[in-house]
Design goal:
alpha/beta, TIM Barrel, Sulfite Reductase Hemoprotein, domain 1, 2 domains, 5-stranded mixed beta sheet, about 20% strand, elongated, binds iron/sulfur cluster, isoprene biosynthesis, 4Fe-4S, 4-hydroxy-3-methylbut-2-en-1-yl diphosphate synthase (flavodoxin), iron ion binding
Length: about 400
């Protein structure tokens, strides 16, 4: 059961309540470089990003926000650290939401009140974005505890229990994060401003999970989920899926951002995969493919990756299977909307549970994408399957007789 939070609106996107869990990302361009920033946001929009955040480190970045907003189609969020004047300018520029960090907002409450009054006047939403790193920086007690924990981990205090010490440290930090968020919320509420959501991010999965759980028990403001500085594509995806998965499975979370050291466009498919896996959103392609093994006689890995790459812009819910052999291939392909079940240098194409034809391996890509396109609305079908078909070949020729991969074209 999803926890019922109050609903806020960020531009035309509802967050919280019974609204779908919204997927967002953040640009990596210099915001003042309007052309590059807008181009990146357009790429994000194409793969399903529903809200976008841009960094506003200096006034040069703040003053171009209206120009960026004019050229994009999704709500724009300004990410502010330290200087409240940047938030005030961003709000003046017409952004939809401002993110502030309680751990580093200069002049704390005084600055927050200025920002809240401006946001209220223009009906701009706000994220109170607590980050364990910046909370720790102002928390002397937490710093001391970390030192003690390190000493214990080094074996200096032999009777200590490192796991227990880490748990205590985590609980303490999570509590500090929640307390800070609630303090900022109470200041907002005193000004009758409630257009808020909250994040409690940490690069340590269990700290973030603990903080979100504690907050969720004590407040009904919507939650923006994230594991901050999660890492590169693989590590970051796994940590995000774990942390957010634990929370989402508990019904906690109203919007999310997967943070990766990768192009932001790569964050969006990961976010949707997390939500699809928990049956919380069904946008886009649910992909089923086998890892392949010593039975396989087609290049499943090559074909599956190429098919998946070409379907990233599809928003219509559809299930596609690419399977290596007769062990599980026909079953999974039958269950999918479109399936490929590999055989010896050829494959059977399934559509809506029925085998429709058998094609050689140099036509796998064309055959699968043609069937997928036939199930999509016209504007998406055009993206997937161009007029005249697909001439390119995915994968290599793989044969057990020879025990090796051979490029199909040299066969
Ligand atoms: S479907 Fe066939 S090729 Fe793929 S992993 Fe299973 S047994 Fe191996």
């Amino acid at each position: 059961m999803r926890k019922k939070t109050r609903q806020i609106h960020v531009g035309n996107v509802a967050i919280g309540g019974d609204a779908p869990i919204a997927v967002q990302s953040m640009t990596t361009t210099y915001t003042r470089d309007v052309a590059s920033t807008v181009a990146q946001i357009h790429r994000l929009e194409e793969v399903g990003c529903e809200l976008v955040r841009v960094a506003v480190p200096e006034m040069e970045d703040a003053v171009v926000l209206s120009e960026i907003k004019r050229q994009i189609h999704i709500p724009l969020i300004a990410d502010i650290h330290y200087n409240p004047l940047l938030a005030l300018e961003a709000i003046k520029q017409g952004i939809d939401k401002v993110r502030i960090n309680p751990g580093n907002l200069l002049q704390g409450r005084k600055s927050l009140e200025q920002i809240v009054l401006a946001a209220k006047e223009r009906d701009v939403a706000m994220r109170i974005g607590v980050n364990s790193g910046s909370i720790d920086a102002i928390d002397k007690v937490a710093q001391m505890q970390r030192v003690q924990v390190r000493l214990r981990d080094d074996g200096t205090l032999e009777r200590s229990d490192p796991a227990e010490a880490r748990r205590k440290e985590r609980d303490h930090l999570a509590e500090r994060m929640v307390t800070k968020a609630l303090e900022y919320i109470s200041w907002c509420e005193e000004l009758d401003y409630h257009n808020l959501d909250v994040s409690l991010k940490s690069s340590t999965v269990l700290t973030a999970v603990e903080a979100y759980r504690r907050f969720s028990e004590r407040s009904d403001y919507p939650l923006h989920l994230g594991i901050t500085e999660a890492g590169t594509l693989v590590a970051g995806s796994v940590k995000s899926a774990l942390g957010m998965g634990l929370l989402l499975a508990d019904g906690i979370g109203d919007t999310l951002r997967v943070s990766l050291s990768a192009e932001p466009e790569e964050e969006i498919p990961v976010a949707y995969e997390i939500l699809r896996s928990l049956e919380l959103r069904n946008r886009g392609v649910t992909f089923v493919s086998c890892p392949s093994c010593g039975r396989v006689e087609i290049d499943v890995v090559g074909v599956a990756n190429e098919v998946e790459k070409r379907l990233t812009k599809v928003q219509t819910p559809i299930q596609v299977a690419v399977m290596g052999c007769v062990v599980n291939g026909p079953g999974e392909s039958r269950d999918a909307d479109v399936g490929l079940a590999g055989g010896k240098g050829k494959g059977v194409i399934f559509r809506k549970g029925e085998p429709v034809r058998t094609v050689p391996e140099d036509q796998f890509l064309d055959a699968v994408l043609k069937e997928v396109a036939s199930l999509l609305p016209e504007h998406e079908a055009r993206l997937v399957y161009p007029e005249g078909g697909i001439k390119e070949i995915a994968g290599t020729h793989r044969t057990r007789d020879e025990g090796r991969n051979i490029p199909i074209l040299q066969k």
